[in-house]
Write a structure and sequence with these properties.
It contains 13 helices and 5 strands. It is mainly α. A 3-stranded mixed β-sheet has the order 4-3-5. Strands 1-2 form a two-stranded parallel ribbon. α2 packs across α13 and α7 packs antiparallel against α8. The longest helix has 29 residues. It is globular and about 65 Å long. The chain starts with 6 loop residues before the first helix and ends in a 13-residue tail after the last helix.
């Protein structure tokens, strides 16, 4: 998991189109932007030292998804399971042999605290942490066995075929047609002091259990399939549960809550890592 082995790959892949995954680009940037407002001075200094002044947390947030298009075993195989966890109940048990998001998060935390880690290793670790905290707050990244986090549950979104995971990754967030800065500012205005105190939690197992509970509500809310009303389906095409305005009304508050919580928890996680000054790598990020 050494970043320096993949620098050449990263340079090439930066020019490749990126897939829409996890919270989608908007959601991950919102999480990072909210976190940035809650960083301690020490954590902010370490982040700047690693990323340099030219890259903000919100820019780093989508990098692990963008790199999934890169060739090579690391990005095509090793890192793939790090974006989610799978459990059938609500209590996390253990990681599978290939690893998962929780195991990766612990690994990258150790990398940031390891005085022997190179600058490239620490940069990769920081970008993954920013991303994975967001992933674990998306309820369908805490998946049940055998349906790939809702990717295999076919639905329609305002009449257009898609899947349940995609609805939660992007459609619910992007429906408001706000930029990530606009959405982050809107959500920040609605984070109370009580919210900040209540949500300040650095234990990823708590976040996972929350997501698993919400996941069950999401599955239970899939509406029954209605008979077609005038629109003809292709031969052999099955009718799909249609998600539209009532679904937006029901779940937009939960989406906003999870984005706010993820931002607060990301700040808490980084502030904990940098509760004391950490040794800096010899290379400069500037």
């Amino acid at each position: 998991m050494k970043a320096r082995l993949f620098i050449a790959v990263a340079t090439v892949a930066a020019l490749m189109p990126s897939p829409a995954l996890a919270w989608g680009k908007t959601g991950h940037r919102v999480v990072a932007a909210i976190a940035d407002t809650q960083l301690s001075g020490l954590a902010r200094a370490h982040v700047r030292e690693l990323l340099g002044y030219g890259e903000s947390l919100d820019e780093a947030a989508n990098w692990p998804d963008e790199m999934r298009a890169a060739p090579g075993e690391f990005w095509q195989k090793t890192a793939t399971p790090w974006h989610y966890v799978t459990l059938n109940g609500i209590i996390y048990d253990h990681a599978p042999p290939e690893g998962d998001a929780l195991e990766a998060l612990a690994h990258f935390k150790a990398v940031l605290r390891d005085p022997k880690s190179s600058l490239a290793d620490k940069q990769l670790a920081l970008r993954f942490i920013v991303h994975l905290v967001g992933d674990l707050h998306q309820p369908l990244h805490v998946g049940k066995c055998c349906d790939r986090g809702g990717n295999d549950i076919k639905v329609s979104w305002f009449g257009k075929p898609t899947n349940l995971h995609a609805v939660w990754d992007s459609q619910l967030v992007d429906d408001q047609q706000l930029s990530f800065t606009e959405m982050a500012a809107k959500l920040e205005r609605h984070i109370s002091d009580r919210d900040l105190i209540t949500w300040w939690d650095i234990n990823p197992r708590d976040w996972i259990s929350e997501s698993a509970e919400y996941r069950e509500r999401i599955y239970a809310a899939i509406p029954p399939v209605k008979k077609a009303t005038g629109k003809k389906r292709k031969k052999g095409e099955a009718p799909l549960p249609d998600l539209s305005y009532s679904y937006l009304y029901k779940f937009t508050p939960l989406v906003e809550q999870r984005l706010k919580q993820a931002g607060i928890r990301l700040a808490a996680y980084l502030n904990d890592i940098y509760s004391e000054p950490q040794p800096l790598p010899p290379e400069s990020a500037r």
